[in-house]
Design goal:
405 residues; alpha+beta; FAD/NAD(P)-binding domain; 13 helices; globular
């Protein structure tokens, strides 16, 4: 087998490594390039929805992900002005729809660690850190990437290239694929603390707090083990200096204003980031395919970014395996583009934009209608199940292919 008979993957995050593991399990050689010198353990996405847990089960890793995370059967909506818990939704109503009637809060760096360890002794899995893809040259029969390595610039050739190199994707830019959409004016501030919101505030592991001036998301992750960490997310003034928003006094005041406490908060992590809603014009250009944040980005409310990326990887790997083995023509890769781009535009973008607008609704009538509808939906098992089939991404995943060209 020549060196070119392999799949190149730019980006060693969860999306790239899921694709790599799915492919090597089918005997397809891969080489993964990641610009970092080691796996990143920054606290980023964690929510893993039932539809994604089903896919991780196919990979044979759902037990490990669950063991390293927190099982969350319920989630709640709160109204900040009144302090009322408006609605509670229990995934147990989905017990006849999925083997995983719950969410698992497992930080994405744990998923990448699991996958990397599983591929350590697989000869056809080549993962290279400190390797940054800098350019792409795609031909009819192969793809060549230029890579900045510790030994200098090098070229690598493969049969296909998967760009899973994030929202600023070099692969997407090299292929001149436009990234259509918009950027929200406000930025999101993330603060992590071991403060026990369950014991002290009656929170479950996933909470959405609506407010016309300043909403908040509050959820728990396992961290390095008990007692775990709670993450809170807030919208911030786009004009405020970053150093002010990350200042000790400001972040303490932020938490105290939402969750008054007699004691100062132990804030172990803080981050401020810009929020986009964008989808690439195409997910395939010849032998180059893109997935995850390289293909689509959205706000984090509802936890659909990481899930959408993993779902991309599994959809793409399944089709690439069939093409590689001669069981299908290359046109099947166009189906990947059609299915996943339609999913990103018609479900993820629409749902996450709606999630944000509902939490921050300022019109009193609109807010009242939203909260009333939530309460009524949660109290009706039939409506509640339908609501969770959508929020858990099960319904949209089951409908893939029905609305694509």
């Amino acid at each position: 087998m020549s060196d070119a008979s392999r799949v190149l993957i730019a980006g060693g995050g969860p999306v790239g490594l899921v694709a790599a593991y799915a492919l090597v399990q089918e005997g397809i050689p891969v080489i993964v390039f990641d610009e970092n010198d080691e796996l990143q353990e920054d606290p980023r996405a964690a929510t893993t929805h039932p539809a994604t847990l089903e896919l991780l089960a196919k990979l044979g890793i759902v037990e490990q992900v669950t063991e390293q995370g927190l099982v969350c059967p319920i989630f709640r909506f709160w109204d900040r002005p009144t302090g009322e818990m408006v609605a509670e939704f229990d995934h147990g109503l989905l017990k006849d729809d999925t083997d995983f009637p719950h969410v698992v809060q497992c930080e994405q760096f744990k998923l990448t660690r699991i996958l990397t360890e599983l591929m350590t002794d697989i000869e056809i899995a080549d993962i290279r850190f400190s390797h940054r893809v800098t350019g792409v040259s795609a031909g009819e029969d192969s793809v060549t990437v230029s890579v900045a390595t510790p030994e200098g610039e090098q070229s690598f050739t493969g049969t296909y290239l998967i760009g899973s190199d994030g929202g600023r994707s070099t692969v997407r830019k090299a292929m001149d694929i436009s990234f259509e959409g918009f950027t929200w004016p406000e930025r999101f501030l993330v603060l992590s603390t071991p403060f026990d919101f369950e014991a002290e505030r009656g929170m479950c592991y996933r909470n959405y707090i609506a407010d016309p001036e300043e909403w908040c998301n509050c959820f728990k992750v396992a961290g390095d083990g008990p007692p775990g960490l709670w993450r809170t997310v807030y919208p911030e003034d786009p004009e405020a200096p970053e150093e002010k928003l990350l200042d000790d006094a400001y972040v303490e005041q932020k938490l105290q204003s939402f969750f008054p406490s007699d004691q100062p908060y132990d804030i172990v992590h803080r981050n401020l980031y810009t929020v986009h809603q964008r989808v690439a014009a195409t997910f395939r250009m010849g032998r180059v395919l893109i997935a995850g944040d390289a293909a689509h980005v959205n706000n984090s409310i509802g936890g659909m970014g990481l899930n959408g990326g993993i779902q991309d990887s599994m959809n793409l790997a399944e089709k690439l395996v069939k093409v590689w083995k001669g069981e299908a023509d290359e046109e099947l890769l166009d189906v990947y583009d059609a299915e996943r781009r339609t999913f990103a535009v018609e479900f993820v973008q629409e749902q996450t934009i709606q999630n944000k607008k509902r939490l921050e609704a300022k019109n009193p009538q609109s807010r009242a209608a939203f909260l009333k509808n939530l309460k009524e939906t949660a109290s009706d098992p039939g409506r509640s199940r339908q609501f969770m089939l959508k929020s858990s991404m099960i319904e949209a995943m089951r409908n893939i292919g029905k609305s694509t060209p």
